[in-house]
UniProtKB/TrEMBL annotation:
This is Sulfurtransferase. It comes from the Bacteria. Keywords: Transferase. GO terms for molecular function: transferase activity. SMART domains: RHOD (SM00450). The keyword Transferase applies.
Length: 113
């Protein structure tokens, strides 16, 4: 992998049982997220790294944000820590556009904000 290149995967290639790590902030997560995703906001990521590392043991981590910028940074960090991670190209906007399901924790219709 050339220096500075982050591995990316198309949303269609993210397995339904894959470890999807959503690094968006709380308000973005609340508006709509992928069912089964793990939510660790980028702003709290370093403090919660141990939790992520434990979940990621022997698994590929699919990192997602709104469009792919924040998740690329987190993917780079995870790779630097020896964790098999890949950035989800296009983020949650691409996820929704591809027709992948979104859920909320409340009653409002799920959406990407």
């Amino acid at each position: 992998m050339p220096y500075g290149r982050i591995p990316e995967v198309d949303v269609a290639a993210v397995p339904s049982d894959g470890l999807l790590l959503d690094v968006r902030e709380d308000d973005e997560w609340a508006a709509g997220h992928a069912e089964g995703a793990v939510h660790v906001p980028m702003s709290a990521f370093v403090a919660r790294f141990g939790e992520v590392a434990e979940l990621a043991a022997d698994r590929k981590v699919y990192v997602v944000c709104r469009v792919g910028g924040r998740s690329a940074q987190v993917t780079q960090y995870l790779l630097g820590q020896g964790i098999d991670a890949v950035n989800v190209d296009g983020g949650m906007l691409a996820w929704a556009a591809a027709g992948r399901p979104l859920v909320t924790d409340g009653r409002e219709p799920a959406q990407v904000v």
